[in-house]
Design goal:
With 128 residues, the protein is mainly alpha-helical. The chain contains seven helices and no strands. Helix content is 73%, strand content 0%.
Length: 128
C-alpha cells in the first residue's frame, strides 16, 4: 500500500495503478482505500489521455456496486465514498467552459466526502 501511495505522490499514476491492481485485500476498509486510490489514478490518467476514460467510468460503477453490496461498513463511510464517486462523475461530465456544477459545490461544502482536498484541487484546476 505504501508503494502505491508513494507513486501517487510522485505523479507516477500508471505505476501506482499497476501496484493497486495487483493487491488482494481481505479487509473491506482497505479495499475502500484501494478502490479510491485507483479512481484517483484513473482520473489523473484520463485527464492526460482519453483512453483511460472508459476504464475510469467502469471502475467508478464497480466501486459504487461494491459499496452498496458491503453493508458491514458504517453508513457514514459508505456515504462519503458514494459522494466521492458522484463528484468524480460530475467532473467527468463537465467542460472547462462551464461554471462549476452546483451539485459539486453543494457536496463539497455540506456533505461527508473522502479525498476532499484532492477533489477541491481538481475542481480548481479544471476551471482554470
Amino acid at each position: 500500500m505504501g508503494k502505491a501511495q508513494l507513486c501517487v505522490v510522485k505523479g507516477q499514476y500508471e505505476k501506482a495503478l499497476s501496484s493497486l491492481q495487483q493487491m488482494k485485500l481481505e479487509c473491506v476498509d482497505r479495499e475502500y482505500w484501494r478502490r479510491t486510490m485507483m479512481s484517483r489514478c484513473l482520473y489523473e490518467l484520463s485527464m492526460a489521455e482519453d483512453t483511460y476514460l472508459a476504464t475510469l467510468q467502469s471502475n467508478l460503477s464497480a466501486f459504487e456496486q461494491f459499496i452498496r453490496r458491503h453493508k458491514e461498513v458504517f453508513e457514514d463511510k459508505q456515504k462519503a465514498h458514494l459522494n466521492f464517486i458522484k463528484v468524480l462523475n460530475l467532473l467527468l461530465n463537465q467542460t472547462k467552459l462551464q461554471p462549476l456544477n452546483e451539485e459539486i459545490n453543494r457536496i463539497l461544502k455540506k456533505e461527508r466526502i473522502v479525498c476532499k482536498l484532492w477533489l477541491l484541487n481538481k475542481c480548481n484546476i479544471e476551471k482554470q
